[in-house]
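Sample A.
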Amino acid sequence: MINMANEAVIIELLGNKGDPVRYTCASGTAIVKGEILKFSDPRTAAIANTSGSFFAGIAAADKQATDQSTTVSAYTNGIFDLIASGAIGVGEGCFAAGQNKVSGDSTCGQAPKRLVGVALETAANAERIAVRVLR
């Protein structure tokens, strides 16, 4: 198991077991189950380590840097505990805000295609918050 901080925690997978989507990824990349992923062209996923990334989903499994795999699956439908970066109000849209954190739309004002989900509760900075992940 790879160790990382602040991974998303599954509360409930919706649809078809979280509606996982498979993406390509670099073979030498390590990804931890629960990391927020971003996507780029062509259908490639990586760790969302900057604010405002295009949201791909939540990593569904660990991917070792040495396993030679070039695919990763991401959950796109469910309720997850995520870490707030700044205050977030219930009902606000949540956007990627650096590695494994989300910010509310009052602080980001990002485009819908960057949306991670909707806050199901209010959170202060660095607090875990239930988010309805939508993709």
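Sample B, a different protein:
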Amino acid sequence: MTDAANLGSGLNDVLGLRYPETTPDRVVMEFTIGPQHLQPFGIPHGGVYCAVHEAAASIGAFTWLNKDVPEGGPIQPAVGSNNSTDFLRQAKVGDTITTTATPIHRGRTQQLWRVESVDQNGKLIAQGQVRLANLPAAPDR
């Protein structure tokens, strides 16, 4: 199976995401708040947490969908269809954020994942849910 964390560069690289754990049942990502994560008022932009939450849930959903696909076989993508993220407290530059995604529901056509982001002290920074659509397998990949 294709490793979800290595599907290519893009926003995940720009955000500086690291992947300490990627399994079909749990995804853990880490990143350190830097100037690139701030909005004009000097605090982390809420869109960063939305993007990280969707990335974590998408990687988990993809990993679950493709856990039995042989190397080089057709993979089945999962894409976000709804992202609800609540921002609970501010982090600051230099804080390390750990985001954990776990499945609530996994079905034939859709999945729902719970996602939480905590700072290095374990304080909840943001939490939410991401719904994903399971797309048909891509035979030409």
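Observation for Sample B: The radius of gyration is 15 Å.
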